[in-house]
Write a structure and sequence with these properties.
Helix 2 packs parallel to helix 3. This protein has a four-stranded parallel β-sheet, sandwiched between helices. About 40% of the residues lie in helices and about 25% in strands. The N and C termini lie far apart (about 35 Å). The protein is α/β, with parallel strands linked by helices and about 80 residues long.
């Protein structure tokens, strides 16, 4: 089982977060879009998802809904938006 799945479309930010988590002892995988993240969830188990709100094609809220239809896994939403 992998600790954390990161779904982040900004490659630099995603790699930074993944590398920081790995440096601190976590196992982490990075996907750059919702579709590949959902495919990976079909094949692997994760303890937590770090999910970007602003993703191409399928946003973070839609992705969260798709995950919830199949699994009960903690999800932390990440956003650069300043609105509530």
């Amino acid at each position: 089982m992998t600790d954390i799945l990161i779904i982040e479309d900004n490659p630099e930010l995603g790699i930074l977060v993944r590398d920081h988590l790995r440096k601190n002892g976590y196992t982490a995988e990075l996907c750059h879009d919702a579709e590949s993240g959902l495919e990976l969830l079909e094949r692997e188990e994760f303890r937590l998802i770090l999910l970007d709100v602003m993703l191409p094609n399928m946003n973070g809220f839609e992705t969260c809904t798709a995950v919830r239809e199949k699994r009960e896994i903690p999800i932390l939403m990440m956003s650069a938006q300043t609105d509530e």
